[in-house]
Amino acid sequence: MRLLLLSVSWAVALPGAARADSLADQLGPREIAVGEALRGGATGAAGVDLNPSGVGLNRELVFEGGYGYRAADSASLVGVSACDSTNAMPGCFFYGYAGASPTQDGMTLHRTTHVAGLALSRALVPRILIGATAKYYHFNSSMPGESDTSGTTFDLGATVRLTDLFNLGLSAQNLWATSSTPQFPRALGGGLYANLASTLALSFDARWKLDGDDRSARYGGGGELFLHTNGGQNGIPLRAGVVHDDAGAGATYVSAGLGFAAISWGIDVAGRRQVDGGDETLILASMRFYGPRLPSSAGE
Question: Among 15, 56, 199, 261, who pairs with 121 as Cys (CB 3.0-4.6 Å)?
Fold first, then answer.
């Protein structure tokens, strides 16, 4: 590593049923703010979460890390990542931890999840990128109906730059797991990302969960407006989105976020509120530090 950093993020969910779910627990504030719709523009740590091929969309060295707390199950969340897309094989190292102490029937139980791995991206031709993520996970729980498990699993992704303005992203998550667990279900997703101007981007995604009792579709969309300051050296991103999950009786969420971006660092905050099917609230923040940032060859 050429740079060591510590950054902070937090997540609070009130109220609502919290459970371990690798498809949602690793999402950052930018992804949440735009309705989880970044599979077509998943740069940096978003590539780990949504589509590994997106790591190669730009050329930069960026480090992220964080701590989180979720009140619903007294969960502590820790995550770090280091992404370097300045070389011939862009990639991210990452680690995530979630330790929860949910209460059931007057008893305090425990649940922990560790995830670590490597995401890589490669341009087949200038407008088509592919990517893969290898993950090791270890899950331990004293919750009734949940079993301890560990193993490896893989994600695959592709990004097609249809034009200079539009990207199409496709991803498959948790394929070929060495042991089956509902905490790491298989899922397919896709989305369209439209970079309409240097200051405006719109996106729409859909994801289908293929395993478990709550197989469902989840789809959302949002937008990002980037306001330049200090003669274009800095900027303030403003984001908003909506996402709907048709699992069970269905749930709809609205989200928003903002941030500050400088040459060598950036910070984002986001919030999401469930407006149908429950009353969950989620708040997140993150911070990034950058090393070398080069002109993009693939474009975002």
Answer: 56
As a whole number of angstroms, the distance between CA 257 and CA 276 comes to: 20
d(CA 243, CA 274): 9
User: Is 300 domain-assigned?
Assistant: no
Tell whether 299 is covered by a domain.
no
**Across-strand partners of 229?**
234
* Integer angstrom CA distances of residue 28 from 42, 110, 194, 249, 281: 11, 24, 20, 26, 15
Alpha-carbon gap, residue 67 to 11, rounded angstroms: 8
Domain count, the chain: 1
User: Is residue 223 situated within a structural domain?
Assistant: yes
pTM: 0.86
Its domain, for residue 78, covers 12-294
For residues 114 and 104, give the distance between their C-alpha atoms in angstroms, rounded to a whole number: 23
